[in-house]
Design a protein that fits this description.
There is one protein chain. It is built from eight helices and twelve strands. It is of the alpha/beta class. The chain has a four-stranded parallel β-sheet with strand order 1-10-11-12. A four-stranded mixed β-sheet has the order 2-3-4-5, with helices on both faces. Strands 6-7-9-8 form a four-stranded antiparallel β-sheet, with helices on one face. Strand 11 (about 210-215), helix 7 and strand 12 (about 230-235) form a beta-alpha-beta unit.
Length: about 260
């Protein structure tokens, strides 16, 4: 089972650091019925936030949880509480130095979230968030590319991070560590289509998988590629919680 964090396990909040998984989601992910499952959380967030601050960890009989933070640059394992993380990309320091001038040029009062391995510029706090994102993207994208950084648009956010890695790449590596018969993935954002393509390819080659779209409240924030590729659509973290609870009941019903 693989799930994104923001607006899949946890509601999106004005302060990203305050986000926590819904308790009813955690009840399913740490339940004894999860034995035999493996939970993987590919996310743009720091792995430490998800593993420790958000307390996403296994119970004694629950499934092991692997968090792939910063789109896979970091890895945290809940069973051992170990975190592996490379040094931040040198270009990010230059990006930090340039961000005040870049934002001044765009005229957008974006909220800046420094993730150490990436910079997120949020426009959800602006008067017209979609328009603000459109104004901010051009003056930021070109300088980011000059520095060797990837400027990726998400749901009302522009994220600057090292190029060459995405959720699909790192999830493929985790799945290759041990045989995996079937995979359920739930996601909501523009960083999730690489996972959709990975699992669609696995299914085309005879694997079993279920793709779930954790749909936002606002249709303006729906990611078309994600919505059209997923077999199931649920309403944000509440819908994900209900789906996982139904899956848990089915697992319990099948056990002797």
């Amino acid at each position: 089972m693989a799930v994104d964090f923001d607006d899949t396990l946890a509601p999106i909040l004005g302060d990203p650091a305050a986000a926590r998984p819904l308790p009813r989601v955690m009840a399913v992910l740490t339940a004894p019925a999860g034995r035999g499952l493996r939970v993987v959380v590919p996310t743009g967030r720091p792995a430490e936030h998800v593993v420790r601050t958000a307390m996403l960890r296994s119970g004694p009989d629950g499934p092991p949880t692997t968090v792939l933070g910063h789109h896979g640059l970091q890895r945290g394992d809940s069973a051992t509480d170990r975190l592996s993380s490379p040094p931040p990309h040198p270009a990010l320091e230059q990006g930090r130095a340039r961000r005040p001038r870049l934002l001044a040029q765009s005229g957008v009062p974006a909220r800046i979230e420094d993730k150490t391995h990436g910079l997120s510029l949020h426009t959800r706090c602006c008067e017209n968030p979609p328009a603000a994102l459109g104004l901010m993207e051009p003056p930021v994208r070109a300088p980011a590319g000059d520095l060797g950084l990837r400027a990726e648009v998400g749901r009302l956010v522009l994220e600057l991070r090292p190029d060459g890695i995405d959720k699909g790449t790192v999830l493929a590596a985790v799945l290759a560590e041990r045989p995996t018969r079937s995979v359920l993935y739930a996601g909501d954002d523009l960083a999730d289509p690489p996972v959709v393509r990975l699992l669609s390819d696995r299914c085309a080659r005879g694997g079993t998988g279920v793709l779930v779209h954790s749909a936002p409240m606002s249709e303006d924030e729906v990611v078309p590629e994600l919505a059209s590729s997923c077999a199931l659509r649920v309403s944000g973290p509440d819908g994900v919680a209900a789906l996982l609870a139904a899956a848990e009941r089915a697992l319990v019903g099948r056990r002797p």
